[in-house]
Amino acid sequence: MQCIHIGMKMFHDDAMRSFPPFDGLIAFEAALRHASVTRASAELGLTQSAVSHRLRKLENFVGTPLLIRQPSGLCATPAGIALSNELAGLLDRMADFRALCRAAAPPPALKVGVGAALADYWLVRRLPDFAQTHPGIPVELAVREADAHARSTDLTSRWCGNQQRA
After folding, report:
1. Is 144 helix (H, G, I), strand (E, B) or coil?
2. Angle (deg, nearest 10), helices 22-34 and 78-95
3. Strands of 139-144's sheet, edge to edge?
4. Tens-place pLDDT, residues 8-48
5. How far is Cα 14 from Cα 105, in angstroms, rounded to an integer?
6. CA separation, residue 75 to residues 34, 79, 126 (Å)
7. 79-101 burial code (b ≥16 CB/10 A, e <16)
8. Residue 78 CB partners (closer than 8 Å, separation 6+)
9. Which of 2, 15, 20, 92 has the maximum number of C-beta atoms within 10 A of its C-beta?
C-alpha cells in the first residue's frame, strides 16, 4: 500500500483550525429547510430537545443567533442566511465523498478456487455472463487439482461427480 502525505499537520498548535459542530450543521440545515424543529427532529430521528441542543451548540460556536423562532415557524437571521448559502453546496459535495473514495480504490476481486473439471465443464462458460451482469467485480480464478485446498479464495468448490460419500 502506498501512502501519500497531503500536508496535514500531525500535531496541534495555536494556528489549528476550529471546525463547527457537524451535528449542529445537519440540524440547522434540516430545521431551516422544514422551518420547524419538530419536522427536523422527525427527519433526523432525534428528539426535539436533541435538535435544539445541536442548534444552540452551533449558535454558540458562531457567536450569533442563526434562526428566528416565530409562531409561523423558523426563519434564518442574516448570519443564518449566509451560513445556509455556503452549507448547501458543502453538503452536496459531502454527499459525493463516498463515491469519490470508492472510485479511487480498486474494486476487490472475487477469488474463486475451483477444480479443473468443474472449471472446464461449468464455470468458464458462465464467466462472460457474470462479467456482463457485474462489470465492477473482477474475478480471479484459481484452477487447481482436485485434492488441493485453495486458502486464499472467497469461494472454493469441489465437484465430486458421481462419487458417493461415506
Report:
1. strand
2. 110
3. 139-144, 110-115, 155-157
4. 454 555 556 799 999 999 999 999 999 999 999 999 999 99
5. 35
6. 10, 11, 59
7. ebeebbeebeeeeeeeeeeeeee
8. none
9. 20
